[in-house]
Design a protein that fits this description.
Blueprint (H helix, E strand, L loop, with lengths): L10 H16 L27 E9 L3 H8 L5 H14 L4 E11 L4 H17 L3 E9 L9 E12 L15 E6 L8 H10 L17 H5 L7 H9 L3 E6 L4 H5 L8 E5 L8 H10 L3 H5 L6 E7 L4 H11 L3 E9 L5 E3 L1
Parallel strand pairs: 2-3, 7-10
Antiparallel strand pairs: 1-4, 2-4, 5-8, 5-9, 6-8, 7-9
Helix pairs in contact: 1-4, 3-4
């Protein structure tokens, strides 16, 4: 008699993993949690969160081919931070407080150790953002994935009071200030190009970094987890000081900085804040690619960019000082002439 297990799908093992995930998810509980993982859907009680006139903000993303570099280097511990960061940093651009998160994980054969490493990382990232992991899906699909390959995606929902929704395009004006927050490296974008260059140049990933870094090896530096920005901006958002936020992801600085602006405005960024981390300089020299290609592919050291009204400048600067936040002025808003984003 032929069984599903004969085809490479072990439902019993997958069901057992749900119990492990349930233990992890409980550690992310926040106001609004309604039920345990294991149902057909994730339930959440918005009324318990204290919003008066909320808009829900949703986001979904993956981390692309950074997964393949993670498999190759066996560095999986930060992939959950990447996944949560790519989703939650996006909804943050609308001023949203994260509420809950779900994941989808698929592979040829689920390896328990690898799977739990990733789920623990997702859990840690959710806790940092006060976001509840309320559900997900796990699938074994032999034939669609190679033996050791897997993929996963994230889905998040947040909420923002209607009067605080970002960007406030009508309030952003010429000469308003741009501020940046550093990235922790490449985050989760451009890894198809990164992997191609590493292969073409025969880079030893286990070798000590050829650039100044807090990480010991090339592999560890290239796999640095995505920065989670909600903790940086929580108090700033509560004070209603920001008019626009751009998450610098696929499309790089040039593609993402203008997304918070109306068509008649552009972002000017001082070039001294671009690629001043040595890992970007190292990669650009290694790959022999132009400044323009770097700017439209990578975050170049700026993970998040926001705009502040001139009227809020003093209060904003004081809050940065009081909270010891590593946020710094990088440029200003200009009237759009030739480009939506200028680096000079």
């Amino acid at each position: 008699m032929t069984t599903y297990k004969d085809a490479g799908v072990n439902i019993e093992n997958t069901d057992l993993l749900v119990k492990d995930i349930s233990k992890l998810s409980k550690s992310t509980n926040r106001n609004g949690n309604f039920d345990e993982i294991g149902g057909f859907g994730g339930l959440f009680d918005l009324k318990k969160c204290g919003f008066k006139d909320p808009l829900l903000v949703s986001g979904t993303d993956g981390i692309g081919t950074k997964i393949l570099l993670g498999i190759e280097t066996d560095i999986l511990d930060g992939l959950g931070h990447d996944l949560v960061g790519m989703c939650l940093n996006d909804i943050l651009c609308h001023g949203a407080e994260p509420l809950f998160f779900l994941d989808y994980y698929a592979s040829s054969r689920i390896d328990k150790n690898s799977f739990l490493k990733i789920m623990k990382s997702i859990t840690e990232a959710c806790k940092i953002n006060n976001c509840s992991l309320i559900g997900g899906e796990t699938a074994e699909m032999p034939g669609l994935y190679k033996k050791d390959d897997f993929d996963f995606a994230g889905f998040c929902v947040g909420a923002v009071e209607r009067k605080k929704i970002l960007p406030k395009k009508n309030e952003i004006e010429e000469d308003d200030l741009l501020y940046g927050i550093k990235s922790s490296g490449f985050h989760s974008n451009g890894y198809s190009l990164i992997r191609k260059v590493l292969k073409d140049k025969n880079i030893d990933l286990n070798k000590k970094t050829e650039f100044r870094s807090s990480y010991e090896t090339n592999a560890a530096a290239l796999m640095a987890p995505t920065t989670l920005y909600f903790p940086f901006l929580k108090k700033i958002l509560e004070k209603n000081l920001v008019n626009g936020i751009s998450h610098i992801t696929g499309g790089g600085v040039i593609g993402n900085a203008p997304r918070m602006l109306s068509e008649n405005l552009s972002a000017w960024i001082d070039k001294k804040f671009i690629c001043n981390e040595e890992i970007f300089q190292w990669f650009q020299n290694l790959a022999n690619i132009t400044d323009e290609e770097m700017l439209k592919t990578f975050n170049c050291g700026l993970g998040l960019i926001m705009t502040i009204s001139k009227n809020n400048y003093k209060e904003f600067e004081q809050l940065i000082k009081d909270e010891s936040l590593d946020i710094f002025e990088i440029g200003k808003i200009e009237v759009n002439k030739l480009s939506r984003c200028t680096i000079s």
